Amino acid sequence: AQKVTQAQTEISVVEKEDVTLDCVYETRDTTYYLFWYKQPPSGELVFLIRRNSFDEQNEISGRYSWNFQKSTSSFNFTITASQVVDSAVYFCALSGVRGGSYIPTFGRGTSLIVHP
Amino acid sequence: GAGVSQSPSNKVTEKGKDVELRCDPISGHTALYWYRQSLGQGLEFLIYFQGNSAPDKSGLPSDRFSAERTGGSVSTLTIQRTQQEDSAVYLCASSSPGGFSGANVLTFGAGSRLTVL
């Protein structure tokens, strides 16, 4: 069975602070994919990033960066110099490639509030 | 269409009534997913379609819930004899190329908010 844990329910920061959203996963698959999605107040989840289990290189996209560590089964997401527009609920998700595990399993989400 | 469309966006119903929620996926997306989002509960998987068939119905919470997909396109989620615990946002997503690939990126609709009084 797959499991995704986002232990942080809500994080509140002031604009320009850096913030890291934690994601820890469990899977028995050796090949799997990890995702982050953003759900702004308007409601629609939007895809941010996908990583496969064989690529542990960290990735940076503007103010966003992702740290994938298989040794600790974590896929953390850092926002540098946060902005009010970053306020949203962020979901981490995991999917495998065998049996029913290809259906993405989502964490409970972390609500990020960025204050001006 | 350009995105995933869901209707109605909001539905208020009385306990015991039946409701139908509709999802129109992105044209050409063969895979379609239904999730339920309850406050503080994250996204709960309900059912997955590949084309018109549903290889995985494991997430449907009870036999009051059913779903179908016709023409490899529009899907309808039906909840019979609604209960208050059914109140949630029902999200539909689609992906391409579909198939049994964990690599699929999902495109979500805006959801249907169901309130059962």
Write structural notes for this entry.
The complex is a heterodimer of chains A (116) and B (117). With 116 residues, chain A is mostly beta strands. Chain A is 0% helix and 53% strand. In chain A, strands 2, 5, 6, 10, 11 and 12 form a six-stranded mixed beta sheet that branches. Chain A has a four-stranded antiparallel beta sheet with strand order 3-9-8-7, with no helix packed on it. Chain B has strands spanning 5-7, 10-13, 19-24, 31-38, 42-50, 53-56, 65-69, 75-79, 88-95, 107-108, 112-116. The radius of gyration of chain B is 13 Å and the shape is globular. Chains A and B meet through strand 5, strand 6, strand 10 and strand 11 of A and strand 5, strand 9 and strand 10 of B.
Give the key terms.
heterodimer; A: about 120 residues; mainly beta; six-stranded mixed β-sheet; four-stranded antiparallel β-sheet; about 0% helix; about 55% strand; B: about 120 residues; seven-stranded mixed β-sheet
Intertermini distance of chain A: 41 Å
Category by helix and strand content of chain B = mainly beta
Overall residue-averaged pLDDT value of chain A: 93
So what's the oligomer here? heterodimer
Count of DSSP-assigned helices of chain A:
0
Helix content of chain B: under 10%
Please tally the β strands of chain A and state the result.
Answer: 12
By DSSP, the count of extended strands of chain B is 11
Percentage of residues in DSSP E strands of chain A: over 45%
Quick recap:
The complex is a heterodimer of chains A (116) and B (117). Chain A is mainly β.
Could you give the topology of this structure?
The complex is a heterodimer of chains A (116) and B (117).
Chain A: E1 3-5, E2 10-14, E3 19-21, E4 24-26, E5 32-39, E6 46-52, E7 59-61, E8 64-69, E9 74-79, E10 88-96, E11 105-106, E12 110-115
Chain B: E1 5-7, E2 10-13, E3 19-24, E4 31-38, E5 42-50, E6 53-56, E7 65-69, E8 75-79, E9 88-95, E10 107-108, E11 112-116
Parallel strand pairs in B: 2-11
Antiparallel strand pairs in B: 1-3, 3-8, 4-5, 4-9, 5-6, 7-8, 9-10, 9-11
